Amino acid sequence: MKEKEWEKLLRIKTTGRDDTRSDTFRYPYEPTSYEVLERLANTGIIGKNNTLLDYGCGKGRVSIFMAYQTKCHSIGIEYDERIYNRALANKTDAVSGNKVKFLCVDAVGFKIPDNVDRFFFFNPFSVEIFKSVLANIIDSYYENQREMLVMCYYPSDEYLMCLSQEYNVTFVEEIDCSDISDGESRREKVVVYRVGEK
């Protein structure tokens, strides 16, 4: 399905880039392509018993789509209050709005709920912030051990380096998306890592 068809089906408006509050540490809002999200949903690594946390959720596309497509629960966090309000407006009308929660919080200080076991990133912020967030995810694992998967779409070399150097994080799989968009093809993928004991 095309972007417009998904937006209509889900009853949301999430298109368009927004860089009004982006800076060196927090990157512009840009929605993940529905084709990429379909491919991720079809892997089966997110299901109805999972709770997904989308960092830098923007207008809420990932959370709402995944809740609809995989029946998971989803939490989206966003630091920009204006964009967060767009996510709230989308949740009100969305077909899966009852399975989705949006919070206007800073990612570094956010305490991860015990039931969250899936994490999604589309380069929302700098690697410095990512390292702090990853440390929070690892801490959450040790506070309440469970299967935890980190998914990064279109990962930067810095994100990949950070993940590969972390002792408590193991590469699981790579979902190839190079045929979907005309971006830098080597980055057109979703990489999946497991958090916890090796």
TrEMBL record:
Name assigned to this protein: Class I SAM-dependent methyltransferase
MF terms in GO: methyltransferase activity
SUPFAM superfamilies reported for this sequence: S-adenosyl-L-methionine-dependent methyltransferases
Pfam families associated with the record: Methyltransf_25
Keyword Cell division part of the UniProt annotation: no
Tagged with keyword Cell inner membrane: no
Annotated ranges, domain Methyltransferase: 53-126
EC number: 2.1.1.-
Gene3D superfamilies, alphabetized: Vaccinia Virus protein VP39
Membrane spanning stretches: none
A GO biological-process term: methylation
Alphabetically ordered keywords of this record: Methyltransferase, Transferase
InterPro entries: Methyltransf_25 (IPR041698), SAM-dependent_MTases_sf (IPR029063)
Source organism of this protein record: Lachnospira intestinalis
